[in-house]
Amino acid sequence: MHPILARGSFLALYLGAWTLLGLLLAALLAVPGGLTAAQSSGIAIPLALVYAFFCLSAWYVARSTPLGPTGNVRLVTTALTASIISSAAWLLVARGWLQIFAPGEDLARMNRVFPALRALVFGFGVLLYLLSLAISYSLSAFEHSREAERRGLEGQVLAREAELRSLRAQIDPHFLFNSLHSISALTTANPPAARHMCVLLADFLRDSLALGSERRIPLARELALAARFLEIERVRFGERLNVDVSAAGAGECLVPPLLLQPIVENAVTHGVAHVVSGGTIRIRASRGTATLTITVENPCDPDRPRRTGTGLGLANVRARLRALYGDNAHIAASEAGGLWRVDLSLPPDAGTTIPSH
């Protein structure tokens, strides 16, 4: 269906524009034809509204002969042929309208002036049809541009989702490997603790799988999952591992699921595990007017062996944030005074709260 006919408001605006063109045609007819304002308006405005529907065919002509694949000769020939045929048909309609509009003596007088006006009406019709055709080509080009843009955005979204699925797939095996390694270490030293850790691990995996299937989850649920993981690790580390979590009113903010998991794992595996006296893992979250800020801090041994690169955990989080938010999210890691700190800053859309039910 023609886009103008698809919505009543578009059709009303279109016919309003053609009414103005009808007034212009009435002014052109009045002087050479010796017609009064009422007579010229009575002829021109209805004819203009009729020709408005004739010119709708320009949309279909433009679609059947697109600018790119169609040669210039064919474009010009098609445009001139369509405009001449439409204008000639309009002249026939004008002749018939005179029979209705001006019976009797008025008709005889208008028949005498009609040959003089015929060239004017025909030329006006050709120009209007060519203008409609040019507008149709412009709209068609805009439509193709929007369609190409939409396809490009869809491709970007699909690529981003594929990257996110790949990154998410890396989390579970990495965590599971670390957890099984911890259980293996406990099986000989403390079998009851190993069994308890297996139960906690099963509950944790069940929760992580449930959350991992969602696109966004409340920060409170993400923090609860991190606390569940740290509870598992406390079976192995005992009093050496302490946890301090504060959401500061940001618990309802939405975040990507399992975002903190790699960071908390690193805090244990590469932080507390290397400190003889252990320490406290602190997680802080605060909601500002434009950002949601999350900080994870853990003790570290300044003399520990240095790894090359940032490791899988931070690289995974950084890649996920880049895929989700581009340059609008940031993650930074720093070390000072025996403390390792990771700061995350998420854009405003991540700070949208869940509507209450």
Write down the CATH class of the largest domain. Alpha Beta
Shape summary: rod-shaped
The CATH topology of the largest domain, please? Heat Shock Protein 90
Oligomerization category of the chains in this entry = single chain
Level-2 CATH architecture of the largest domain:
2-Layer Sandwich
How many domains comprise the coordinates? 2
Number of helices: 10
Strand content: 5-15%
Describe the structure.
The protein has 357 residues and is an alpha+beta fold. It has 2 domains: 3-152, no CATH class; 190-351, Histidine kinase-like ATPase, C-terminal domain (Heat Shock Protein 90), CATH 3.30.565. Helix content is 66%, strand content 12%. It has 10 helices and 7 strands. Strands 2-4-5-7-6 form a 5-stranded mixed beta sheet. Helix 2 crosses helix 3 (37-54), helix 4 crosses helix 6 and helix 7 (191-212) runs antiparallel to helix 8 (219-237). The longest helix is centred in the middle third of the chain and has 85 residues, at 105-189.
Question: What's this model, at a glance?
Answer:
The protein has 357 residues and is an alpha+beta fold. It is 66% helix and 12% strand. The protein folds into two domains: 3-152, no CATH class; 190-351, Heat Shock Protein 90, CATH 3.30.565.
Summarize the SSE layout with pairings:
Layout: H1 3-6, H2 8-33, H3 37-54, H4 57-64, H5 72-101, H6 105-189, H7 191-212, E1 217-218, H8 219-237, E2 241-246, E3 254-255, H9 261-269, E4 279-287, E5 292-299, H10 311-325, E6 330-336, E7 339-346
Parallel strand pairs: 2-4
Antiparallel strand pairs: 1-3, 4-5, 5-7, 6-7
Helix pairs in contact: 2-3, 2-6, 3-5, 4-6, 5-6, 6-7, 6-10, 7-8, 8-9, 9-10
